[in-house]
């Protein structure tokens, strides 16, 4: 008789797990809280779905997952994801290493996965919320409660995701409690791939500023990102900022833990709530491609022509106007002040600020605007097949586990990697 596998959550990880288990001959039931499967997939990659990335490495994932990622990715990596898509009829293309469906539409992936679920005869039940998993006596499998219904299964794959994404994705972190009830440790959660918030009063208003820059966090030594940074009156965002955000959220939250004043893990609170008054400093370098020598040369050249102009006229010649306004205000110099012949050193000091613009960060934006949740079910409590050590027969996949990747296809890759490994193992 074929094995009965129940998968809870029909996102990227859950549908992948269900498909892999069914392809191995298991009889699969797929429960989904939403009415439709794969809602979040349709929103990914700005509607284009960045499936994975040719530049794949364990270092693209959170620190606590890295030592396990090499093995996981060996078992189901980038080329496996591309082949999996091909098996669904989805042709992919690489844009400088970032892999997208050739159709340019995320909905292609959502539909193709669900078509395969139906083709394989997987029983899909929408509008069913997983509530409880009870292990039956030795070898008898599990009783699963979902929205008032009771199901029996030999193996259960929990794929209900984390807390990130708009409300319509139903990402409410339901299974953190379920995993805990089955003896698994759940690491504190924070929003990641999300904007950083600031109360600084002198940040550019309205649409703000978009500039290529390096961003680092003064208090966290080993992180620095390059790319287009957006600064508005609310704080900073853009890809390089998103890449730093998980570490910042954790740092601010951990600071609270030290002071014994930390919000409960996996509550719906934001990173800002958890920060409770802690701050870090984002340091922005608006001349990231300049060596120290080239920057000095540029400064000399500009200041040599500056006498008689206003400070803002000089600064407008080298960078965005609104950044110049902010720097002059921080230096206590009026925009219309004339640069005198003997002010050249003072002007050079002002220009030096472009490499060190400090913005005080009070927290990160909320889960609804984040792309991924950092934290979750500890990998220490999961085997190489992502099976629970404390409750064998239960598997944890996707964002629910303590794995989060950089922006650029790494999180969907994890959803496919974990879904595939657990789906095949559960069917055995
Ligand atoms: C706006 C946005 C853009 C993104 N873009 C990209 C991108 O381009 N590339 C990339 O790699 N990553 C991207 N991500 C991240 C990526 O989408 C997620 O990491 C990935 O989809 C997680 O897959 P999952 O299956 O683990 O969870 P989810 O996709 O969240 O799926 C979980 C499913 O479980 C269901 N569910 C929840 N609770 C229950 C319950 N109790 N019972 C039954 N069902 C339940 C949910 O309704 C949902 O359908 C993006 C995220 C967002 C929010």
How would you characterize the overall build of this protein?
Helix content is 33%, strand content 23%. The chain is α+β, with helices and mostly antiparallel strands and 428 residues long. It folds into 3 domains: 4-191 and 371-427, FAD/NAD(P)-binding domain (3-Layer(bba) Sandwich); 193-286 and 359-364, Elongation Factor Tu (Ef-tu), domain 3 (Beta Barrel), CATH 2.40.30; 292-347, no CATH class. A 7-stranded antiparallel β-sheet has the order 17-16-13-14-15-12-18. A 5-stranded parallel β-sheet has the order 6-2-1-10-20, covered by helices on one side. α1 runs parallel beside α13 (410-427). The model is unreliable at 255-269 (pLDDT under 50). Bound molecules: flavin-adenine dinucleotide. Residues 8-14, 31-34, 39-40, 43-45, 49-50, 129-130, 159-161, 164-165, 169-171, 174, 371-372, 398-399, 409-412, 415 line the site of flavin-adenine dinucleotide (FAD).
